[in-house]
Amino acid sequence: MIGKVLVANRGEIALRIIRACRELGVRSVAVYSTADRDSLHHELADESVCIGPPPAASSYLNVPAIISAAELTGADAIHPGYGFLAENARFAEICERVGLRFVGPASGTIARMGDKAEARKAASEAGVPVTPGSEGPCGSVDEVKRVGAEVGYPLVIKASAGGGGKGMRVAEAEAEAEAAYLGASREAAANFGDGSVYVEKYLERLRHVEVQVLADSYGQMVTFPERDCSIQRRYQKLIEESPAPCLPEGVREGLMAASEDLIGSLGYEGAGTVEFVYADGEFYFIEMNTRLQVEHPVTEMISGADIVAEQLKVVSGERLEIPDDALSPDGHAIEFRINAEDPGRNFLPQAGLVEVYNPPGGPGVRVDSHLYAGYRVPPHYDSLLAKLIVHARDREASIRRGLRALDEFAISGMDTTLPLHLAVLEDDEFRRGGVTTRFLSDRELESEGGLLRLVQHFG
Amino acid sequence: MPEIDENRSLPLREVEQLVELVRESGVGEIRVRRGETEISVKARPEVQATPGKDQVPTGTQGVPEVIEPDLSPEMDGLHAVRSPVVGTFYRAPAPGEDAYVEVGDTVSAGQTLCIVEAMKLMNEIVADVSGEVIEVLAENAGGVEYDQPLFYLRPDEQ
Predict the structure, then answer these.
(1) How confident is the model over B87-114, as a mean pLDDT?
(2) Domain total for chain A?
(3) For A375, what's the count of Cα atoms within 13 Å in the CB-facing half-sphere?
(4) Considering only A231-240, A419-428, B72-81, which range has the smallest mean pLDDT?
């Protein structure tokens, strides 16, 4: 096992990694910005180094400062967490070049999967179903129209370098193809410095399902039962659960086999997630995230695996240690992202002093959070305050447990997404299971006696 | 959203009063503690930063080392020159050469005080005020963090 890991992140995920290190007897180094002097990751790590001022570009994205901190503290490896430098192929390459192990796949794999058109091609070549559309990038309006004639409208034009809904346009019919192509390309160039786009058939009613994967350098590959992440707002996941409810028989096996085919063809090492859309009984590859994900605890709860510990074993050149029974789901788990956003005011980000913090407890409840009473949420970073994960015998029991735990969860000093989660769990369609990614945009939030309620709008 | 945390910022007015009290009473030192905040005001010439607090953690102890900027000497009119980068602190331009500055030297604004090396880049750190070098706070060839005080200068009277 490696001796010392520098954690190039902050918040709950930095704590998650430090905790895994401590259990494995690996020393941890936290890096922090001056805005995070009072943060738990800085307190709980064995060592810590201040790397810069509050803006992420000068601290958590500051490659020279992070590499210098690793060299000064004698770290063997860097764990990037998620966000920040986690999918930055150049950063991974710099780590490789200066002799630091990067906790993740090789930089070439990150680069290949980071280019969405290229990832689609790789999946297709590995025999993984992709949404009907263009082979690779589309260089002209004529090409877009040719794909449209072949697969039918509506079409969606997406940025190759994109993500998070940026550089994306829908063309309902051929007449809209030109404007959509030019708009997506312009937005892609402005946001990502790369205007190349590709085209897919636009699936309106779909579910987002994904497969957690792990692979070591001995060729051992593990694919876990799928997670369903269809409860989203503006392409940001809010609730994730595993296994996905109401999937026909055979779909799970199909998803797991397709994911294994893809990572096998890539020679993948470490943890990753293969993302799919699922519509009308079929699934299609959309992209691969070459990193640890926010929602990894959902899989940990139903499998008993410690995904972060496995990552550290892989980067140490050791073998994965996943028991065989981890591959069929043990019960059902749901994760709720508690964000510092006010659902009553269009999810306005909140910052400030946490006055009261009382996380829920009891059976089947896990909370991953960097909060404590008296902590001040800085305005510089993302709004994730805590992840509440509940685990129970089946979906119905985990929904009841979720309602109980959400109700117990007390955070005062700022508005959070806690009441929204309660409203989702009270929704009949959600309780039946199998909702699409349109679930939240199809509904209005109404305030009722201090509680929030979701009301579906029709037509 | 203000960046300064009221809980952590020093109660400047009270520090001023303490400085006044030390001066008038002629005692060597006054310490005041309230909650987590402890203020210690010492009469000159014992103005010194606590040794050992100014290095990047070396990792020999099992406890996290919290590096807090030691503000008290600055209350006494001293100016801290802080590291703008994470790196290795060098007092001289090259091994075997004289240090850029020594305690007691008078430096002018813009004058190089030291080098902080980060990823093979030599960053010359310059004095941002003119004045006298009172103390060198970091160890030669040791690691320094972002924002870590490197020197105390006593600025010239305007």
Answers:
(1) 96
(2) 3
(3) 22
(4) B72-81
Contacts of A131 (CB under 8 A, 6+ apart): A200, A201, A203, A277, A284, A285, A286
Do A166 and A255 fall within a single domain?
no
Give the pLDDT of residue B34: 60
Does residue A113 carry a pLDDT above 80?
Answer: yes
- The count of other CB atoms within 10 Å of the CB of residue A9 is 27
Give the domain-ending residue among A201, A231, A259.
A201
Residue of B nearest to A25 (CA): B62
pLDDT digits (tens, 9 = 90+) for A399-413: 999 999 999 999 999
Which site among A68, A355, A414 would you substitute to test the B interface, given the most B Cβ atoms closer than 10 Å to its Cβ?
A68
| Enclosing domain of residue A155 | 132-201
**Is residue A443 in a domain?**
yes
> Which are the catalytic amino acids of A?
291
Q: Where are the alpha helices (DSSP H) in A74-205?
A: 89-97, 107-114, 116-125, 141-151, 177-192
Same domain? For A362 and A249 the reply is: yes
Query: Which of B36, B68, B86 would you mutate first to test chain A, the one with the most A CBs within 10 A?
Result: B86
CA distance A332 to chain B (A): 38
Whether A379 and A263 share a structural domain: yes
Where do the domains of chain B lie, and which CATH numbers do they carry? 1-46 (no CATH), 61-158 (2.40.50.100)
**Cis omega (within 30 of 0) for bond into B84:** no
Residue A216 shares a structural domain with residue A194? no
A31 and A91 both lie in a single domain: yes
CA angle B99, B100, B103 (to 5 degrees): 80
Task: Select from A173, A201, A229 the last residue of a domain.
Answer: A201
Contact A76, A3 (CB under 8 A): yes
What tens digit of pLDDT does each residue of A311-328 get? 999 999 999 999 888 889
- Subunit contact B59:A65, Cβ cutoff 8 A: no
Contact A49 B86 (CB under 8 A): yes
| A291 and A350 co-located in one domain | yes
Q: Is B47 on the interface with A (CB under 8 A)?
A: no
Q: pLDDT digits over B8-47, tens only?
A: 444 556 666 666 666 666 566 666 666 556 666 666 543 3
